[in-house]
Write a structure and sequence with these properties.
This protein is mostly helical. It contains four helices and no strands. It has a single domain, classed as Four Helix Bundle (Hemerythrin (Met), subunit A) (Up-down Bundle). Helix 1 runs antiparallel to helix 2, helix 1 runs antiparallel to helix 4 and helix 2 packs parallel to helix 4. The termini are far apart. It binds fe (ii) ion (FE2). Fe (ii) ion binds next to helix 3 and helix 4.
């Protein structure tokens, strides 16, 4: 049973953004499965590396849509992205120093991100972009 089940109601209806979000949910569930097998710590290196790539590519995609659509909420939305990026990089710094955060810390952080950003802030962006397209 995965930790987080993607629901159609979470979709922004912007295919590029939804594709990325589903990738993120997959990554979170993989980490959760590894933890259940007692292998969460082993997957930390890979998960953090994947997240760093994900963040630079995915946030650029979203922010590109915001700029193109003159999204009025861009600054607040970008602030949330910057906060997420900083947290992931900070965990990566700890990992490089040999003090990787416990996998439950990362997992909890990612779960909260899905709840507080992907299914709320990003949904709001999706609604705006859809309205602009119509
Ligand atoms: Fe976002």
């Amino acid at each position: 049973m995965p930790l987080f089940i993607w629901k159609p109601s979470y979709e922004t209806h912007i295919p590029e953004i939804d594709y990325d979000h589903r990738q993120l949910v997959g990554l979170i569930n993989e980490l959760y499965e590894a933890m259940k097998q007692g292998q969460g710590y082993d997957l930390m290196n890979e998960t953090l590396n994947r997240l760093i790539d994900y963040v630079s590519q995915h946030f650029e995609t979203e922010e590109g849509f915001m700029r193109a659509g003159n999204y009025p909420g861009i600054l607040d939305h970008q602030k949330e992205h910057q906060q997420f990026r900083a947290s992931i990089l900070e965990m990566d710094v700890r990992r490089r120093a040999g003090h990787a955060p416990p996998s439950i810390e990362l997992l909890t952080y990612l779960r909260d991100w899905l709840r507080d950003h992907v299914t709320t802030t990003d949904k709001e962006l999706g609604r705006y972009l859809k309205k602009m397209q119509n």
